[in-house]
Amino acid sequence: MKYKTRLKCFATALGFVSLMTVGGAMKASAEDVVLHMAVPDWPPTRIMKDMFDKEYKPASGNKVTLDVDFIPWPDFYTRVNASLTSGEKKYNMAVSDSQWLGAFIEGGYFRKINDLIDADPDLKKAMDGMHPKILNAYSTYPNSTPNYYGFPQFPDILVSYARKDIFCNDEEQKNFKAKYNKKLPCTGEEFDDVDWELFGNIGEFFMRKKGDMLAGKPADDDFYGVGFQVGKGYDFSTSSVNSFIWQAGGDIWDETKAPDGHAEGQVNSDVAVKALDHMLSFIKYMPPVAKTGTMDIFKSDELFRAGKIALNVDWVGLGEASLDPKTSQVSDKLVFGMAPGTRGADGKLNRTSQIGGQPFVLTTWNTDVINTEAVGFVKWWLSKDVQTEYSSKGGQSAIKEVYSDPKYSTYRPWNRTWASSLDYQKDMWHVPQFYDLLTQQQDQYDLAITGKQDAKTTLDNVAKYQEKLLNEAGLIK
Amino acid sequence: MTTAVLQTSSPAFTQLAPDNWKLAVVAGLGISIVACFALPPNLSFWVVGAMAVLVAMAFVVNAYRRHYYGGLLVSPAVAVLVVMNIFPLLWSLGLSFFAYQSSQQSIRFVGLANYVKLLTDDLKAPELWANLTNTAMFTMLTVSVQMLIGFLLAVLFAKQFPLRRYLLILVLTPMMLSVVAVGVFFSYYYDPTFGVISQVIKAWTGEQFILFSNKTGAVAGIVFADAWMWSPFVMLLVLAGLVSVPKYLYEAASIDRVGSWRRFWTITFPYIRGLLMLALLFRTIEAFKMADLIILLTKGGNDTMTISYHVIRIANEQNKTSEGAALSYLLLFVVIVLTNLYLYIANRRSQGN
Q1: How far apart are CA A471 and CA B336, in angstroms?
Q2: Which helix (H) or strand (E) holds A94?
Q3: Are the CB atoms for A208 and A308 separated by under 8 Å?
Q4: Which residue, B187, B259, B193, is CA-closest to B224?
Q5: Does A471 touch chain B (CB under 8 A)?
Q6: pLDDT of B230-262, one tens digit each?
Q7: What's the rounded Cα separation, in Å, for the pair A61 and A83?
Q8: For labelling alongside A101, which of A258, A332, A429, A446 has CA 20 to 30 A away?
Q9: Where is A188: in which H helix or E strand?
Q10: Prior bond of A142 cis (ω within 30°)
């Protein structure tokens, strides 16, 4: 009798709980849709969330909320990776660095979106209107095939950040001309035309000790010529090395040629070794922290904003802080140009550059309702008006219709370089082994940057490792 | 009491009773094995789990009816230990025999291949060895510095002097800070452009000082930061020993005119020896696992990669779960051997005395 009563009690409780669960789920699908999204915490995503909350009206009539996890950049990969691979299925959408695509698509987490694009003429139009280089980098896996996975959240490129007060100073102009017989760039257009040779001259020219004259005044602290990312963390040296290798006519291991392409011979070719040496030659003109291997995109930006560097090459995405007098000592002294390139025999600059920025993706476990709402959100996001507004608030757009508007270049001082830079953007690997490739490569580059190993040995080690790893993975035969 | 005596006889093996644990074990095992072969993994996992719960419940009911209250009382603790600790440990041990990556859906039994690969691969083995020697170096350096400073601080704070309490709180503060805060703080402290050290040295030499430009500097920087943070911990333990020494022993010693050195070795040291060993053990185990400060300060640059950081990279960042598990077990083996060696030496010493 006693047992029976207990059993009854238990059954009733179970019934009640299941009723509540089913009821709750039904209620959610009928009216409220919550889109859970993982994004890095920085202005481009904050602006998006803000615009969504204020302006987005779903066409379906459902009440759609965007629940965003703002994750600090240094933890972003680890957190998203942990969430996806643990199988918690928390996020319906996530911002993803383009290199992660392969790993998370092969893992079965990122949803292929070709069917959604084909089913929706508006979405198709938006995707078609995108710059092809951006589309390839942010959306395709295998790299550069018509298999689409991502939509651009914030496209990003490298630009030159320069100190107008120093470069345009008459004295400095005169001295530079006397020393190198070249014009020291001063306007944005002149910075667009800076090649690595001139970049090196600038680096050498602006190395000043405390008390040396700098733009007509004694420098209050040591001052350095140039800066760009050469750090050990994440991809903070690979991005620079890739650009140098591509511009020199070399290549990294090219996944579009798998399985016939090799790493050995390609990664450590003479051209690549020369390119790496070329990159390393600028470290002596950088703040000393570069020699410790911790000069990443944040550090060089910080040093530039503290007024310690004359010319810095960094992502547009970090630019807002340099314009804000609260976070920048140089906010009123800035001029921007396209990132430097390598001058060919024809006098033209080859500016092939590692692309930055991120797409966002849909996950595979989304229900139809969620998918419909997510597509609605994406369509709204990629529409001309929204992209224009986003750009005017400090975002960037890869949609041709938006960035070719003459007004676009007035939104931010670096926007002038946007459209012409897009053509030169190129991405590193999208293969699932990217993190393995990346960490080993970063370790090796660090040895070269901190002066413990020459360029040839470094690239030989990288090539040997990649050949073996990719061979085991079946990507090199 | 009488009802209790009546229920002490065990049920027959075939009897379907909630306290028939023998039957529960056999049935649980049988059903688990069948489930493992017949059902897909995501279902059989839960079937096996349910069987484990069933067996555990049978044991509990059995203990309740037989009045094994001791066992019954510890059972919640055992349950927590099994669920939170032993199960994940065994699970990861199992994983180390498979080729499995958390970012991929396939899994394949490979036996000892992961271990063999880690220990013999021409690219991986030297890396592992380098990381192990780095870890050993960091362990020896940080622990000895911390023991020394912690001990000296404890001797200082065992005495009475003005403002002692406030100074004690100040000295203990680093231990309570988060490692991330300490790491960020020290990365600025050592920074060649913004850092205090560099500024001070520059005022002297005119050149900025790049501490992390070579391995010696990088190691010194990390060891200093770690010692700054954890010496107070050693101090706290030693201080507890020092204040527990009865005053009358010192009084007797001073009547006998015992020298201060002898007084320390024969009176003070026996009281703090146990705590010193404890501090040594704790700090060694912790130092062996050091990764956080290195990630924050050098990211493993300048040959400061430790084995823990290496595991984090393989298992968490590169998603090579089973390889990471194998590496963790190699690491666990080393730690177990080391701690047992410690305890053996410690015990022999105390027996010798």
Answers
A1: 37
A2: strand A93-95
A3: no
A4: B187
A5: no
A6: 999 999 999 999 988 898 988 888 888 888 888
A7: 31
A8: A446
A9: helix A188-192
A10: yes
